[in-house]
Amino acid sequence: MADKTQEAGSFDLERVRELIEMMEAHGVTEVNLRKADERWVLRRGPAEVINMMASGGYAPPNYATAPQAPAPQAAAPITPAVPAVADGPVIKSPTVGTFYLSPTPTEPPFVKVGSAVKPDTVVCLIEAMKVFNQIPAEISGTITEILVNNGDAVEYGQPLFRVKT
Amino acid sequence: MADKTQEAGSFDLERVRELIEMMEAHGVTEVNLRKADERWVLRRGPAEVINMMASGGYAPPNYATAPQAPAPQAAAPITPAVPAVADGPVIKSPTVGTFYLSPTPTEPPFVKVGSAVKPDTVVCLIEAMKVFNQIPAEISGTITEILVNNGDAVEYGQPLFRVKT
Amino acid sequence: MFSIADYRTRTAKRRNYKPMFQRILIANRGEIALRIIRACKELGIETVAVFSEGDRGAHYLSLADDAFCIGPAAASESYLQIKRIISACEVSGAQAIHPGYGFLSENAHFAEVCKECKITFIGPSHEAMARLGDKVTARSAAMEAKVPTVPGTEGLVTDDKAALKTAKQIGYPILIKATAGGGGKGMRVARDESELVSGLKQAAQEAEKAFKNAGVYMEKYVENPRHVEVQFIADTHGNVVHLWERDCSMQRKHQKLIEESPSPNLPKKVREEICAAAVRLAKAANYTNAGTCEFIVDKENNFYFIEVNARIQVEHPVTELVTDTDLIQAQIRVAAGEELPWKQKDIECRGHAIEIRINAEDPDNDFRGCPGTITKLRLPGGPGVRIDSHVYEGYRIPPYYDSMIGKLIVHRPTRQAAITTMLRALDEFVIEGVKTTIPLAKLMLRDANFVAGNVHTKYVEQTLLAK
Amino acid sequence: MFSIADYRTRTAKRRNYKPMFQRILIANRGEIALRIIRACKELGIETVAVFSEGDRGAHYLSLADDAFCIGPAAASESYLQIKRIISACEVSGAQAIHPGYGFLSENAHFAEVCKECKITFIGPSHEAMARLGDKVTARSAAMEAKVPTVPGTEGLVTDDKAALKTAKQIGYPILIKATAGGGGKGMRVARDESELVSGLKQAAQEAEKAFKNAGVYMEKYVENPRHVEVQFIADTHGNVVHLWERDCSMQRKHQKLIEESPSPNLPKKVREEICAAAVRLAKAANYTNAGTCEFIVDKENNFYFIEVNARIQVEHPVTELVTDTDLIQAQIRVAAGEELPWKQKDIECRGHAIEIRINAEDPDNDFRGCPGTITKLRLPGGPGVRIDSHVYEGYRIPPYYDSMIGKLIVHRPTRQAAITTMLRALDEFVIEGVKTTIPLAKLMLRDANFVAGNVHTKYVEQTLLAK
């Protein structure tokens, strides 16, 4: 097969694989071979190093993981659900207070799933210090999910609605 | 196979492997070879990384560095020189005490660099609790280096002589 | 509009509370937030933490029973946001707020808002705070209470002309201070008329920027004084006790570096007089809860009233150690209406305590703040050592707030033993990833003049760091 | 052969020493090695650590001025190697050895070897240790000193026949104990003759294995007693003082889990009597340095002498906290020939101290040891909390030694407050990577009978863990 691929003027992936396995087995991070018009460059870093880089931050590589570790745990109980932040735009709470979907308990809610909103559409009330603040959507789109329940306490930056734009 | 691949105008991975093993054995991190139009560059991970892996142990990956980190530092003042351990066999101290190269200050030393030793050859005295213990080589070979000075305090397991077998 | 009552159910819990609080909101961050959480846990009170996005994920937040994000990292948008903090208190059902030190702790308006919202502010009444928290009115209060004060202007400086006139009467050097100030902000020393004019301008600008209050006043500048302050606490039943004094003469740019109790070389008679003076002032001002009366003491042990800190202070642990008390717990009890747990005669001062503030600052680069991640931490321990700190290996020090990452406090039978233990503890203290003031601390504790108790508030800058 | 003098220069430093030591070798590991390093640093004494390959790289070793590896991980090949330890002492120029607890601390032969080598053993003379360290001779010493003892055999058990006869006189249940024992090894309770015969055999085997001394003796088994022990210290000038008592009734398989001082519910009169008895015994035995006299106390507060621990103990910090003393420093001072720094009247017992041993054991799996790496550590702190521990985040607990990784000690004005603070501290204590006894500690501290001080040495096994 080797010859065949050589003739084909293409690369012998089997031998590249062999080289990579060699690098891995011996903790080699770079191989750069040149001969005539042929050149191979292979680079790798030990898994740990790659992780470190990934989770980089300011911390020096060999500690990069430690600083990250506590955060998620400690934050868990007090961080708004991460997935919400993850998929698509959300309307976040601009303050701390009590979340209300309707102007009064007896009236219909400002918005429902499926409601179209414009930036100035009022989507809910947040009561803080006996004052009911009308919260505008600030984006245009369609409400796809309501992330908190009527009467819930919400904190600053907490996602309230998910919106499809 | 070597020749064949040479003819094939490609690289001799066997010789690359040989080179890599050489690098690993001696803790070499980079090799940069050039000849005519041929050039080889090989790099291996930073020593720390290799050490980490080597001494990895029970620690989960994201903490692998932390447990190790203190060790080198804390151990530094009290650990026998690492290189000594690294290359080739050494004769280690079987106890704690004071190291003496000669039976008395006025007599010639038991061994010098270049001396041939057999397992039962006395290579030094270690004085502990006023008792002078004769220390046998316990291996055969030639003394290539004396790693402590006459009159030094030596600890258990401390390399005393390097030997070429 | 419509009836608010419809929606009031969830805060009912807060309304009908029993004598002692069930829930307290902590309007602060870092080590003092943790200190208050500890006190509440020991009193069986639930805690509500509030935090900025800059502190999200800090371990101490997980020790609170509840935690609310109240804004972005900037303090002005979070820890100083009265509305959001009150709202967090209401939605979390907390009945009281402990403000810690700094931030809103001496903001009389905040204390007043708490009262209006039927939330107990754990500190003095807003009236007492307004009177004693403001340096000018505090000064006249001190005079009425026969507490010696530094000669100076009766009120705020209005114009340069009047200022120059007064200065001539008092005599130079003159100290210019911001009426709303603290921590040295808005302070200037003027040794002649030209310095006075420029100093007044700079101080006013600095004060406006720092406290949104440009009011400044002047007083005689007592050269090379010691800083001695008296801890006191008052309940709502008219009982006031002092917990002896602290000496904080080791300062750099008006920032305390070492605090200790008792004050070295202060005669027993003077200690008793200065403590009695503080109690007189607290009673006269109808003060409640914990406070500190700050004095400067000259070479002849004359003491002059400087100001009242109407809050708990960073250095409260040294007093707790020598008097075997828990000041944060006491603050909470008296705020809940309980009587003080002690009479004056119960407050003995035993042994000697010293506190070192560990700041993430670079002593080799003009003490520039050193935010970053703590990559390695080995805390000291063993006999006589107390640590109040919220940091840990892997903690990232946010760049938005003050640089103090913890306090190392020791308590031993004698001052000499305390110094020895502190040096031992500092030698054990390993912190990597950020620069800290630990090297300066060692330098200070080994300094012959400090050991002899022969220092003043300018000693560190003029002598120690000048070396 | 030739003159040793040729080679003696390097040990000269050790020979011509001043009254106080310049260098002390610490023949121990872990938290107690660190504790001794701390005491030496505060006395201005250099330290020499010795360590096995199992402890290489531990942080506390870097706090010593010098450190020597003395053998492989197995204690028998390192921390119990008298020759290597003495040799390390000689080559390092140390003038004294502190043995800590366990290992060689109660080995009279080691103390004797030190003396022969002109090294000061920081502990009692080998004669006093031999007499009081051995339970049988200690017992007769106690009788001579009019210290009440539990009725039992006068000497070692020779043959089963004699043993059965004596047992009949004493009356069952009978407790079989190893004469060289400690920590419950070689102990058996026999409730009838058959149990006695088998128990004697097992105890002897266990003792031989653990202490290379198969000698066992018998005594009346006092059912459900409290464990009360008295800390005392004697100088070489005939002064002996006690530092009040500790209660260690919370045990599991004779291993102490909680130690506190003072002992709850022990009448003042009994406290004074039991402490006086300990001092009588120490004086009678011509004892020097620190020691502990252990008693069992029955429901009627009758106390019986059990044994003397001729060394410092794990739980010494609770005594240090209530008496405001430093026992390790005092040990070193009296070993150097100084007089005791206190008279008996100086030793007041103030407030209440509790110690929890944190062991790397799995409470859910019969307390199996849990060696491994500490992947996350958040130590408690703040008021009233003392931590004596050598571990840190990333520390790998070696599997070769006992499982204790630290001690959490609190000191508060009252027992109730101490329990509250301890629970608060335990709630803050985060340790990941290994299982620990922290959950058991919380269970014990919340237990109504413990809180009421209504427990005995079998309570944890028979009631708490049986629940």
Q: Please, could you describe this protein's structure?
A:
The complex is a heterotetramer, with 2 copies of chain A (165 residues) and 2 copies of chain C (467 residues). Chain A has 6 helices and 10 strands, in the order ααββααααββββββββ. With 165 residues, chain A is α+β, with helices and mostly antiparallel strands. Chain A has helices spanning 2-7, 13-26, 47-54, 65-68, 70-75, 82-86, and strands at residues 28-35, 38-43, 90-92, 97-100, 116-117, 122-128, 131-136, 141-146, 153-154, 159-164. The two termini of chain A are 53 Å apart. By secondary structure, chain C is α+β, with helices and mostly antiparallel strands. In chain C, the strands form 6 sheets. Chain C has an 8-stranded antiparallel beta sheet, with helices on both faces. Chain C contains 16 helices and 22 strands. The chains are: A alpha+beta (165), C alpha+beta (467). Chains in contact: A-B, A-C, B-D, C-D. The A-C interface holds A 57-60, 63, 66-75, 77-79, 95-98, 100, 103-105, 127-130, 132, 151, 153-158 and C 1-2, 4, 6-7, 10, 50-51, 53, 56-59, 61-62, 67-72, 78, 83-88, 90-92, 117, 372-376, 392-396, 433.
